[in-house]
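Final paragraph of the annual report: two paired records, presented back to back.
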Amino acid sequence: MCLKTRTQSCTSWGGIKVKRINVLLAICSFTIAVVVPACASPCSSTQYDMMSWFEMGSSWSTEYHLTSNANPLYTYPGNTFYWVKGPAGYPWDVNYCDNNYIYQWATEFNWNDPTSYKAFNNAIPWSPRCVNKPASGVYGSKLATITLVSTPYTIYKSQCAASSQMSLGYVINEIWGPTPMSLGGSLPNNALTLRCLIATAASPPMTTASTKRPSTFNGSLGWCNGLITHCSTVSTYSKTKPGITTW
């Protein structure tokens, strides 16, 4: 497998020259500037920096994407990071991080319309930024829990028109792992993964979850397995990495 090169400016970060991508995403009046790399990790050596699991590594994401049985996945890393689910630059998920948490903010509403989306009224914590590692040789344990009692979001239909207010209700986000997993396709067998399990219910206490959505993350590949998408192959970009398409 050969690495293709892309013309990008370089910047110095900690004395090391690194590639830099500037991506501008405008969603109606909401504008985000994305710069790679993200800030230095706030985590200690005894902790996982969950951003290294949620994102495909920047040295890979400039040249490669994941293919699957449903859709491709392109990663645009940074403090605000994007998962782009199609070669046209949409649909997409918009997430971001700080030193405390990784947050979910927006995802598509109509798969074929980049001017429609769903966005939490306030971005919700998805995972702690730093998660304590288990003891050596311990697998499949619960590493972190986040409980959210209110998760309102807005649906924006075509041309970013606010349509309705909804809510996931009471939400518990859990991080489990690490777990060796064979991801299939050309991906390695017994790759270490962490799993984020999102459980929702109409109201507390969480006796029976109405929805459970697992997402699996690998320390090199990022998001590699979800409720709908099972990524199984690392592919090179056929031409160039698609730009992010919005209204």
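The closing record of the year follows.
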Amino acid sequence: MERTRLSPAAYEARRQQLIADHDSVRDQRGYDPAYDSGRRASFARVLTSARGVKLIHKVSNRHARGDAVKEHVASVVGFALDPERRRLVSPVVVSSEERILVEFLDGTIGWHYREAGVRVGCSCCEPNRAVMALIQRDPVVREAFTVMRAFDFLIENADRHAANFTLMVGGRVGAFDHTFAFEGRHGEAFDYWHLVNPFTGDQLNEWEANLRDLTDLLDEQGPVGVELFNVKPRLPSEMMARRIQELRENFPLA
């Protein structure tokens, strides 16, 4: 049976809805045009649209252009790995030099998750043993973290910790805040990865094909990365092809 190509149309529809939600905020009392213009650097604000949906408006003065491209590419990679959002939810992003709009993910931030009798670390950078127990106990949650592990590896995310993922309804996991990705690091700096499932050959084949289908969307904003750690910006589609091959070479398959 011939595979159906993954269309970027579903992602584009989500992106246009995010823009419409943000634009609807402009008509609300108390909206701050100075914020929208980007004059307040390194600032994020949660807004509520006219239809009651939350979104995040981010402004950053740290490599602002690079941050916008990183968030866009990470969002598209998340869509490629799980278009239907059955396990991994990577927020839709609308990014430009002036603004980064991010879909708000409802759920429990990993650092805030608690279980009776389970010790929790004093900071978000310490492993939350309650989340670790949940991953070990619940196969649906474990598979969600498995997909997130592939996601973080593909985008070279070395900044995954308990304050930038959220546990969502149905055992899904939401992954957000990817401005420290694409900097040449391996994406394995997370205390939970030893608990997840091995990848399967079918998964890798599907992810590779989906990423190939989304080439134009991945490369929409040009090369990704910054001149740090002797890493030069790379075209996202070419980077994904290489990273998928590295997944095959470096991880045992189920």
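DSSP finds eight helices and eight strands in the chain. This concludes the annual technical report; the extension proposal builds directly on these records.
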